[in-house]
Here is the input.
Amino acid sequence: METLQNTFGAPVVSNVQKQHHLSWTNPPTSCLIIKKYHDPAVLKKFKTICIWLITDQRLDVYVEEKDFEELQTIKAGDLTSNSSYANLKMVAGAIENIDDKFLSLIDNIKVWTFGKDKLNNKVDFIVCLGGDGTLLYASSLFQNSVPPVIAFNLGSLGFLTPFEFREFPTVVKKIVKGTLGFTLRSRLDCCLMPCSSQDDEESEGDEFLPISYQVLNEIIIDRGVHSGVCMVDIYCDDFFVTTVIGDGLIVATPTGSTAYAAATGASVVAPSVPCVILAPICPHSLSFRPIMVPANCVLKCKLNPDARSKASISFDGRHRQDFTKSHAVEISASQFSVPCIDKESSMKDWVNGLRNCLMWNGRSATQKPLNKPN
Here is the structure.
């Protein structure tokens, strides 16, 4: 048993081998709500939880600037000026989901502008209303420490969002009391940097400053729109490992092992396992299997000097850009994990997700017992 001090102000008492538990130094006073965009059904749930958090729990509620502008547009009744409501279905849904009580509370909602306001010391926890993509988006907004995240499943798959929306009053009260456990989902610290290239013509005009991203699922290097095979050299702690020849490479976290990496045949890994997954995409080899390396390894990927074309790189499906011989990406374990509130426990939630969302080991019938003669 050990006590850790997290940067969002809440001491974490953890049993390293089992589950982390959160206790507050001071009772939480604020939360950030991140919702799935352009979805009238989610807007209705958003309205309900906003009213409850403000009036019942007396919390300061923050929303993103784009969500606040959406609410102000609806409040003003000028739906046609907002491109989010370009069709009649969304207009009708927006009007139906907004009532006078909520309109009176809109001015009490605080606005957060990404890249301008730092909420790490202002927001005590995050409420996600959407699917797995909404949680990934929430992770991308915090490039350092992340407040605890409670995710309600209002999306399609829901592997990372274990809670049903109807549970929110009970769950939020338990969060405020500090009686729920959470899983620390590891992220990767990815630095896209310049790399010396022998191809002067390709390197020309590619000078840039290193850019860092915090990745919860995976980094993908693939051939993109280019017709040639992708040739990516992999280094681990400055030691050459191999060259990927195929459609590309996935570097995934345990959380990302149930995403794109699963489609390559990579192992599905529990979120508490400290490792990084290297999974080739359609390799031109019958023996190239996905592997896992320890989380304390520093990986580096760059195009092979003999590569005939550029590649593309993306981080959690975002920031997609060309990846040339003048680029390299360095990948290491991030010190800023994402604390996700557990419904039951880390292992139970993970196994339930495998069974219910990915239909793991599902079969239509069980084997009949053997009838032994008397």
